[in-house]
Amino acid sequence: MNRNESRRFEGKCVIVTGAAQGIGRGIAALFTDEGADVLMLDRSEAVEEAAEKVAAQHPGGNAIGVRTDVTSADDVARAFDLANHDWGGVDVLVNNAGVITISPLEDLDLADWQRVLAVNTTGTFLCSQAAAASMRRHGRGGRILSAASGQARQGFTYTPHYAASKFGVVGLTQSLAKELAKDRITVNAYCPGIVGSDMWDYNDRAWGRLLGDYEPGELMAEWVADIPLGRAGTDDDVANLLLFLASDEAAYITGQTINVDGGMFMN
Ligand SMILES: NC(=O)c1ccc[n+]([C@@H]2O[C@H](COP(=O)([O-])OP(=O)(O)OC[C@H]3O[C@@H](n4cnc5c(N)ncnc54)[C@H](O)[C@@H]3O)[C@@H](O)[C@H]2O)c1
To answer: What is the C-alpha to C-alpha distance for residues 258 and 242, in angstroms, rounded to an integer?
Structure first.
């Protein structure tokens, strides 16, 4: 049976944040393939066109894009109202939206520190809170899945705010997993390693400039060469883990943080 015939998520409402591009768009596409009604949220207006393309190219389910800043409680409430009223409540939330900046400590200003924590950690809190309320109301249980990072395993140089934000996601995940277990809501985090995206293009340039005299692409190639499975990750590598964690088969897994990084980290 191919993926389009299986439609394991038919009738399920899945919210993916940061879905206008990159890994988030890939996650939305795979859940749509599996028959889900996918609400793609992003602060970028490009999310509307991205959702139209996902819906056209992956006719298994539905995809709608709604411009939403996950750091805004009002935006988040509006988006979840839509899922509650039009799609019968949320079954799966993927907290994918994330940002990074890279700079030496003396140049790291408070605004960058606060923005990275606001999107990566506070945004995950706001969306998880709204999802848990929806899941408790409809009573079917649910899944909350949040993007951490290799930097939730070990902080890298020049990114203390990003590492703090992603370690924060792990703490939030464990705490919510304990609180929400009685409602059959599981809460897990996942750690991509190196996945080609706009974020990694920026990482390659910014770390490359600060860590040595790297030409564009060289630093990423050097780090990828150290990955035991010998390649960078793809959107599908991440999305396939999430399909499993969102499935009925993963009902007994909660509070975990799982690496999907080709063996880059083994802790
Ligand atoms: N690419 C990697 O190798 C990698 C590695 C580890 C973790 N991650 C994590 O995976 C997630 C996706 O990364 P990516 O590489 O696809 O990044 P990306 O920069 O390509 O995409 C991130 C998306 O999030 C959106 N976004 C940013 N701020 C937002 C906000 N306030 N509200 C709503 N949307 C917002 C952006 O508009 C963008 O569409 C992030 O959480 C990132 O930290 C990525």
So the answer is: 10
Catalytic residue among 158, 162, 202, 214: 162
18 lines ligand 1 (CB under 6 A): yes
Render pLDDT for 1-26 as a digit per residue (tens, 0 to 9).
444 467 999 999 999 999 999 999 99
Domains of the chain as residue ranges with CATH: 3-193+235-259 (3.40.50.720), 196-232 (no CATH)
Question: Considering the entire predicted model, what is its pTM?
Answer: 0.97
| Ligand 1 neighbourhood includes 177 CB (under 6 angstroms) | no
The single residue listed with the structure tokens 């890279």 is: 102
Q: What is the identity of the amino acid at 209?
A: R
Backbone φ and ψ of 63, nearest 5°: -140, 130
Angle at 185 between CA 179 and CA 190, to 5 degrees: 95
Q: How far is the CA of 95 from the centre of ligand 1 (A)?
A: 10
Using one digit for the tens of pLDDT, what is the confidence trace for 108-150? 999 999 999 999 999 999 999 999 999 999 999 999 999 999 9
By alpha-carbon position, which residue is closest to atom 2 of ligand 1? Answer: 195
